[in-house]
Amino acid sequence: MRTRTQRPRARRIAAAVGAVAAGVAVAATAGTASAASQYTCINPEAITQDVDLDVTFASDFPDVVVGQPFGIQPVVRYSFGNGYLQDLADAGILAPGENNLNGMTFWVAVAASNTVEERQILRATVNASANTRVFVDADGDVEVRRYTGGVLNGTPTPNLAGTATLNTTGVSWTPKSAGPVTFSVAQPGGLGQIPVNQQWLRNNATATAPTGPNANEYLTAARPYGQVYVRLRLGETGANGGGVDPVTVVDSGGRSSLDCVAGNVYEAGGLYAVGHPNAGTPILYSEAGNVVPGLVNPPAGDRGRYTVNAATPPTIASVTPDAAVKPFVCVDGLGRFGLGREINGYDIKVTTPDPGKYTTGQPYTLKGVGVEATISSVMIKALYSNLLSYESLPSGGHLDQPLTMWLAITGANTVQGTQVVKIEGRWQASFTDPDGVSGSGDETFPASIMKVTAPDTTWTPTGAGDVSFSVAAPGQIPTQTLTGRGHSGDAGAIFPMTPYGSLFVRAETGRYGASIDCLQGTIRIANAAIAFSNLGRGNPDVRIPTPVAAGAPPATTTVPSGSAGRYAIAHTPSAPFAVVPANAPTAVVTKAKTNAAKPKFTTLVKGGKVYLRVTATLPKAQAGRTLVIQRLVGKRTLTVGTVKVPASGKVSRQILLKSGTKAGATGVKGAKSIRVRVRTLPTATALGANSAYKAVAVKSAARR
Fold it and tell me: Percent of the chain at pLDDT above 90?
């Protein structure tokens, strides 16, 4: 193996964000140091700097807030130089003639300062394509050819270049403070051990395994020295980089690895240790990487063969988080479709005008609950790009579309507890385009503020204290029936949606329908193996027929009924948006004075008839009130009679009792006593110290 110094070549494919100088040479190391470059890569034939790798993020950041997970999607821009491709030809990995591109997998260790996660591994894949071929002529010279429909397209190029988008499914970053979050490639060795054959041509944990000849990746695992690792297959009949005989391993031809370090790599001249069959001889290259050499061929690793002189890892991008947490976080169909971000924070306010007071025992109507939501400029820009790409931009740059909102409201100290209100409204957004040429780059995208008002709701206070209204805990909005919109086969499909949150929005965009499922607290992806679903929190293990449009034939396929388990949700309720105290007792209701009046009951006989006599003295302030004389018969309370309190407050009433019958409130035949009491209207409170009945003896004449 030799060290190849970078040949003169064209300008780098893209300037890296925050490019760094290479590390200084290490003294007293064997071998020849490679020339200065951003990355130095180990390949089966040489140490090379003839590989350009730039990990970049050029898109807009989402709203980044302390404590709230967010995501970005970097890309890898690569250019495999002609010198490197000749290395592969020299090693026999590229066979003479044309070698099809049969796929590549990138692993990148990404670090983010000031985040809970600190470092995560992202992957990207480049699929096999017969349209890209690396040609090796009889003299060993190499060129890259592009084909369209089997016909050579354009002039061959010396390099193999392209862009690979890193997959961020299930990947988020959570700022720990308001300090900057700086993304960079991690330190060398940050990839750890890679299960190569389990992840070959799969860019995330749920990706479908490859099939066909390319599926048989023989390399079980590798521990890279660097922080960017590429596994690639060019052609099918060449040798491979690990010393494995292609005859004994099916479809192993044309496979090799690039192990890339930000900085420099040197051949250290390490020797196999005592006890190894090749003890005392130089350690050979091994695809297993930075692992102690084994005792069999091929060796387990080649630790000791190289010295790494790391440079400062290249910066990818930086952002300063907002200190204030967004009041709502949402599983966001708008952001997912427009920005590739599934979870987003939103500025949403729920307010009400002066709620007044409630009266115990009477219904209370909650009026004027307003919901105000801000849709950020970044979100509007993403929507613009989507509408532009499908030629669906609104006339005049003004978007005006319908929306439906469901809001779950909890009323503390009410009989109802929680109610869900449905709100119909519209939302607007504007795309400002000074030159009038769509997509020219001069457009601006002001944030949009959406305001709607909920219909009135009626509540029954329990009287236990203040009635306070707040946004309910998540998961209390029942299943809703929605209709799919847009350009795809889902248009018109009728489907069930069971929201995770307590505020759910279904908004039209002019091209598709977006579901925004929001709650107060935090949401993070806990199990990326459970797929995203437009059906909400249903059980993914339960399958339902694939939704179809009304009137269409029933589907013969099924889909999971939701994505329960995909998210970890923590509810952090905000303060109530309305607190309603009870009305103070009116001056008329003077319980102390009313209770002080003690009614007296007697029976008397006049002219052969029996009467119940009731007397009481009340404060003059009670004049005009109605007293009700009640009798307890068995378990029934019967009204014997009523009397109004005169201006003097002195009450005296005689009520005729019926001595010849037992029926009714006044029937006393055979009764030795009756149980009576007095109540006041309209509150029906007791007159006297308590509401107990008093036994009154019935004169003997009445019992005949």
Answer: 54
- CATH level 3 topology of 591-703: Immunoglobulin-like (2.60.40)
Q: Where are the domains of the chain?
A: 2-269+305-316, 328-580, 591-703
CA dihedral 189, 192, 196, 200 (to 10 degrees): -80
The alpha carbon dihedral of 144, 147, 150, 153 has a sign of: negative
Closest CA to 191 of 231, 234, 161, 160: 231
| Burial degree of 54 (CB within 10 A; 0-12, 13-18, 19+) | buried
Kindly give the residue spans of alpha helices, DSSP state H, lying in 508-563. none
Q: Find the mean pLDDT for residues 199-216.
A: 90
**Nearest alpha-carbon partner for 13 in 87, 75, 104, 103:** 75
β-strands 364-366, 467-471: how paired? Answer: unpaired
- Number of residues that make up the chain: 704
By three-state DSSP, how is residue 358 classified? strand
User: What pTM was estimated for this model as a whole?
Assistant: 0.56
**Kind of pairing, strands 2-3 and 46-48?**
parallel
Verify cis geometry, omega within 30 degrees of 0, for the bond prior to 158: no
Residue 173 and residue 72: Cα distance in Å, rounded? 9
pLDDT of residue 16: 30
Supply φ then ψ for residue 621, to 5 degrees: -65, -15
Q: Which residues sit opposite 440 in a β-bridge?
A: none
Q: Residue 515 to residues 168, 477, 508: CA-CA distances in angstroms? A: 21, 14, 9
Q: Which of 13-22, 231-240, 386-395, 483-492 has the highest mean pLDDT?
A: 231-240
Q: Tell me what the mean pLDDT of segment 516-532 comes to.
A: 92
Structural tokens at position 550: 């009304």
Identify whether the C-beta of residue 72 lies closer than 8 Å to the C-beta of residue 57. yes
Q: What 8-state DSSP symbol labels residue 645?
A: P
Q: Is the pLDDT of residue 595 over 60?
A: no
With a cut of 70, say whether residue 512 has pLDDT above it: yes
| Edge-first strand listing for the sheet containing 160-165 | 51-56, 75-80, 160-165
| Token pair recorded at residue 522 | 């935090």
Q: Check pLDDT > 80 for residue 703.
A: no
| Residue listed under structure tokens 């099809």 | 100
Distance from C-alpha of 503 to C-alpha of 573, rounded to nearest angstrom: 13
Would you call 150 helix, strand, or coil by DSSP?
coil
What is the per-residue DSSP string for 421-472?
A: EEEEEEEEEE-B-TTS-TTSS--B---EEEEEEPPPEEE-B-SSS-EEEEEP
Q: Under 8 Å CB-to-CB from 180, ≥6 apart: which residues? A: 113, 114, 318, 319, 320
Q: Which residues pair with 697 in a beta bridge?
A: 673
Average pLDDT over residues 177-199: 96
Average pLDDT, integer, range 456-469: 96
Nearest of 102, 91, 53, 15 to residue 229 by alpha carbon: 53
Residues 640, 631 contacting (CB under 8 angstroms):
yes
Q: Is the pLDDT of residue 20 over 80?
A: no
The rounded distance, in Å, linking the Cα atoms of 157 and 1 is: 26
Greatest Cα pair distance in the chain: 143
